[in-house]
Amino acid sequence: MKMPVYWGCVIPTMQYSYEMSVREIMPRLGVELVELDNASCCGTPLQSVNMVAAVYLAARNLAIAEKTGFTDLLAVCNGCHLSLFEAAHFLSHDEKLREQVNGMLKEEDLQYSGKVKIWHTIDFLHDMVGEDTIRKNVTNQLSGLKLAVHYGCHILRPSSIGTVDDPENPQKLDRLIDWLGAKSIQYPEKLDCCGAMLMLSHPDAAFTFTGLKLKAVQESGADALVDSCPSCQNMFDVRQKSAAATTGAKLNMPVIYYTQLLGLAMGISQEKLGLNLNRSPIDEFLQKALVH
Amino acid sequence: MTITDQMTSKKPDAGLRLRVLSKIGEHKPYSCYQCIKCTSGCPSMKMLELKPHEIVALAKAGFIDELVNSGIIWTCATCLKCKERCPQAVAPVDLILALRNLAVEKEAKVPESYLHDLSMILECGYVSRPQATITRKLEKIERDKLALPKFRESNERFKAAFLKVLEQTQSGGA
């Protein structure tokens, strides 16, 4: 199956291991990624500054996706997924806005018609690739691992426009973990926000969000925290030390993308999955994961 | 007789209220009955004393200038729990974003990072160019040393089109 993919800003400029692991696993699962031509930011960072410009940017990328002739788009970043999804919702409910935005898109000979269905990594793997294909590709069962999952706010809410999973009791990422032979553990802070968006205005508060959640995950007895959003990973993994310093908690929590975990279960090398780029202390965890 | 803010003796501004509320489409703060479900689930309430229900009440009363010039609208983490859980579909987060938009328009105090993102998008299409990263063993590594395709900035035609969009929408056209 061919699938157009939209990477956004954070993944191709900072969170390389997410891009590397997605590029490694997809072809092996029978998914050929199709690149978008001349894409740009999804608009999320502009929602606070200029909402119409934000919707324009989202619609622009969707219009570029439409141009490929495919009717699906994989938006691997949570923030991008919401921005594209919300824009599609606004544009289908507000004819005046749609006319205005299409007028703006004309400058580049683009047109938004709303034909594209937007997927995120989690629902794409869960609903489209599916259990059978994933189980069949697992050569290294991750049995015995206890994992805490973090969905990230922007693929769960608001459910009024349709989202990736249940907003209050999501299960898809939990099941994706079960299919690898590992166990997803439940903990009360599962839906808590990582704080990433506050980095723009209140970094200390952002680190406190991150630190408190990591502390809770650590206390739950999980072997690692598994996520699928580059901004969340940026907080939990890259900034774990700052989060520890801000909250005064002793943090020592391995953090890994689901796509990296799936790659490990499929027998892909650590180097190809960019596992040397995870900054949290994951070495012991990797040993444990590869023993099975 | 209208409400007067006891601290500043300020009167509400109906025109500005209309301008903000017209930006948030289907979710109208008028239906808020102050059940405080938004604030009780708000993570920024715990850390930064953001009270979404108060923001809704102040906007309903017309104290828009006060909100726009207050730092409190920049404490929202946009976790969207308030929008998800509001029994009246009010979506305080949408109101907060509309107030932020107005703060930018009125040149109130806006955290610099937001404007930095905007200028980067104008410059290359994205909020950043590929940055060097550091491995767990503290080795510096660039994107082009990894097994990844070349990163392409958005082209000049996009930049011109985007600049035009900003000019059209910043002059109150939105």
Features:
heterodimer; A: 292 residues; alpha/beta; Glutathione S-transferase Yfyf (Class Pi), Chain A, domain 2; Rossmann fold; 4-stranded parallel sheet; B: 174 residues; mainly alpha; 2 domains; two-stranded antiparallel sheet
Hey, which two chains have the biggest interface?
A-B, 66 and 66 residues
Q: What is the number of helical segments of chain B per DSSP (H or I, 4+ residues)? A: 9
At CATH's second level, what is the architecture of the largest domain in chain B? Answer: Orthogonal Bundle
Distance between the termini of chain A: 31 Å
Task: Give the tally of structural domains of chain A.
Answer: 2
Helical segment tally of chain A?
A: 12
Strand content of chain B: under 5%
Under the CATH scheme, the architecture of the largest domain in chain A is: 3-Layer(aba) Sandwich
Low-confidence stretches of chain A are: none
Mean pLDDT of chain A comes to: 97
- The helicity of chain A comes to 40-55%
Q: What is the assembly state of the chains in this entry? A: heterodimer
Spell out the helices and strands of chain B N to C.
Answer: HHHHHHHHEEH
Sheet with most strands: strand arrangement of chain B: 1-2
- Count up the domains of chain B: 2
CATH T-level topology of the largest domain in chain B: Fumarate Reductase Iron-sulfur Protein, Chain B, domain 2
Quick one: CATH class of the largest domain in chain A? Answer: Alpha Beta
Structure description:
- Chain A has 292 residues and is an alpha/beta fold.
- Helices cover 47% and strands 10% of the residues of chain A.
- Chain B folds into two domains: 14-105, Alpha-helical ferredoxin (Fumarate Reductase Iron-sulfur Protein, Chain B, domain 2, Orthogonal Bundle); 112-167, no CATH class.
- Chain B has helices at residues 14-21, 37-40, 43-48, 52-61, 64-68, 81-85, 92-105, 112-124, 156-170, and strands spanning 133-134, 140-141.
- Chain B has a two-stranded antiparallel ribbon.
- In chain B, strand 1 and strand 2 form a beta hairpin.
- In chain B, helix 4 crosses helix 7 (92-105).
- In chain B, 36% of the residues are buried.
- Classes of the chains: A alpha/beta (292), B mainly alpha (174).
- The interface between A and B is large, with 66 and 66 residues.
